[in-house]
Amino acid sequence: MNSHGDHKMPLSQRPEWSDVTPVPQEDGPNPVLPISLTDDFRETMDYFRAVYLADERSPRALGLTAEAIALNAANYTVWQFRRLILESLEADLHEELDFVDVVASSNSKNYQIWHHRRWAAEKLGAEATSRELEFTKKVFSADAKHYHAWSHRQWVLQALGGWEDELAYCQQLLEVDIFNNSAWNQRYFVITRSPLLGGLETMRDSEVSYTAEAIISKPENESPWRYLRGLFKNDMQSLVNDPQVLSLCLTVLKAENVSHVFALSMLLDLLCHGLQPSEELKNAIRALTSEAGPPGSDLARTVCSVLERVDPMRINYWKWRKSTLPSQVV
Amino acid sequence: MEDSPPGSSPDSNSPSRAESFDRDRHVFFLQMMYQLMPSQYQGQEINRLTLAYFAVSGLHILRSVDSLHKEEIISWVLSLQAHPMNEDLLNDGQFYGFHGSRSSQFQKIDNGVWMSNGSHLASTYCALAILKTVGHDLSVTDSETILKSLKNLQQPDGSFMPIHSGAETDLRFVYCAAAISSMLGNWSGMDREMAKEYIINCQSYDGGFGLTPGSESHGGATYCAVASLQLMGYIEDGLPSKSASSCIIDVPLLLDWSLQRQAADGGFQGRPNKPTDTCYAFWVGGVLRILGAYQFIDKTALHKFLLTCQSEYGGFSKLPGQLPDLYHSFYGFSAFSLLEKPGLHPIRVELGIADNAAIGL
Predict the structure, then answer these.
(1) Chain A interface, best mutation among B250, B260, B300, by max A CB count within 10 A
(2) Which Gene3D superfamilies match (chain A) (predicted)?
(3) How would you class A122 by CB atoms within 10 Å of its CB: exposed for 0-12, middle for 13-18, buried for 19 or more?
C-alpha cells in the first residue's frame, strides 16, 4: 500500500511533507472513553487534519487519504475529502475503483467503502456495469451472503442495468448452496423487478416448480419455503388453490426421516385461509400424530399439536396459534 | 483472575462462572474499556460517541452507572454538538447534530473560515441516549437546531441519510431519526408518513425487513423497522393477535419469521441458514418483545447459548469461544435484561436504553 518499504516511514521524516505542520487532535480537558492510538494512527490523522484544514486537493493529499483509510476505513470525513480531491484533480475513476478493490480485499464489511464505490460507479455510468457485477461476484466467491455486496449488486442492476444473466447467476449460486438465503432473496428480486421478465405472476408457475424441487431435496431448508410463500404475496387465495403447493406439502409429510416443520406450518396457513382438506391429507396428518387423537377433532388443531411435538423450541407459539385459530377453520 | 480463595463458594456444587451470568466481571470489563479502549478500536475512532454509548448504557443496564463521573460525561457529549454560526444557516442544507468524535469536528479556524460540519445521525442518537442515561435534562439542550436541520436528511423516498455531505440511506437512519425525535419529544424534524412508507417497502416477502427495499431480511434491519414503527405510534402495544388484523405491516408473517430465527443451539441468527450470534438475541428478541410475543421463545435455550458467548474476562463475544468485544457485550447485557435477569435494569427496547433512563428517572 505504500512506497516506503515494509516499515512505513513516518510522515514527519518524509521530505515531501516537510512543509506541513501536523495538527494534533484536541481532545479537551476530560475526554470520555479515550482510545489508545498507535503512533502511526496519531501521526497520519494529524497530517490529515492539516491538509483538510488547508483544503489541499493535491496528489499527495490523495495519497494521504489512502493511508488514513487503511488505518480507519470507517472515517467518513476522510472518504468525503478524498471525493473532493478526486473531483478537483479530475482523476480517472477506473483507477479509483482499482483502489477500492484493494481496500475491500482486506476490509469489505464497512459501509463507507461501498458508498464510495457507488459514488464512483455512478459517475462512470453504464461503462461500470460489468465491472461492478464482476466485483460483487468475486466478493461472493469468498462470502456468498455478503450483505453490503448484495446491496451494491441490487443498486447496480437498478441504476445501471445488467439484468440479462441475473436469474442464471442466482441459479448457479443455489446449485452451489441451496441453503443460501441471500441467493433466494436475489432470485425474488430478479423475478419481481427485472424489466426483462414478465413479473411475479408470469413467472409464478415455473418458479413454484423450481422451488418445489428444491424443497423436496431438502425439506428442512427454510429458504425455499419462504420463497414459495413469497411467490403468492398478497394473494393467499391463489396459494390455497394451487395444486402444486398442496401436493408438495403432501409429498413432504409422507416422507420419512425428514423435517415436517415447514410443511406443517405451510399447511396450517393454508387451512387458516380456507383450504378444504382431502381425505388423503387428513390421513397424512393422522399418520403423524403419535397418540390417536380424538377422532373428528379439526385438522388445524391437530396440525398445531404435531408442531408442538416436532418443534418443541416454539411450543408456546404453536399453542398460541392453536388457541387463536379462526373459528370457521376445519 | 483467581481472586477468590478455593472453597470460598458457599456451595461447592454451585454453578461455575460459565454457568451463570457473571455481573461483577462484566462491570469490571466495561470499566476497563471506559478507562482506556485498546488500540484495536482505533479504526472506530470516528464513532467514539457510539463506543461511549455502549460503555455508559451498558454500565447502566448492569446498575453500575453511578461509578461514572456524570458531569464530565455530560460536558464531553455536549462539546461534540454542532451549532450553526447563526440562525440563517439552519436552512443551508446541513445537519446540525453531534459529531462522532473530535476527528470529524472542525471548528472555526483562524482565518474565520467555517469548515463544514460532519455531524452524524447515529452519533446524535448515541449522544442523546447517553445524556438521558446519565440523567441530563434534554429540554435544556439546543434541540431546535437538531430538529430543524434533521429535515435536511430525509430523502424523497422517506429514508434518511446520516450526514448531509452524502452517504448510504437505509433503515438504520430512519430508526436514528425516530429515536432522536422520540427522546426530544418532538416530531417536527421528520415526516412520519413518508418514513412509514419507506419502512413498509422494506418488508420482504418472508415477513422480515431488509435494510433497503428489495434487500434480504435481516435481524438488525427488522429491529430498526419495528422499533421505528413503535416509536412513531404505528404499532399498538399488546398481544400479537390484537395488532395483527389492522396493522400496516404483515405481522403474522413477521412473527413467524422472527420466531424461526431461534436456532437449534438456542441462540438467534440474523438471517435464515446463518450462524447464531449474541447480538441477535437483542435485535430479534427486541422485535418479539415489541410485538408482544417474547413469551413464545425458548428462554432456557437462549440463556444457555448466551452463556457460551460469555467471556471469562467479562463481556460477550459474537460467537461461542471468541474474545469479547464492546458491541457484542452491550447486546449480550441487553439480551439478559430482556430475559429479566435479576440485578439488571429493564430495558426500553425501542429506544435501546434502560427503562428508567427513558422516562427520565
Answers:
(1) B260
(2) Protein prenylyltransferase
(3) middle
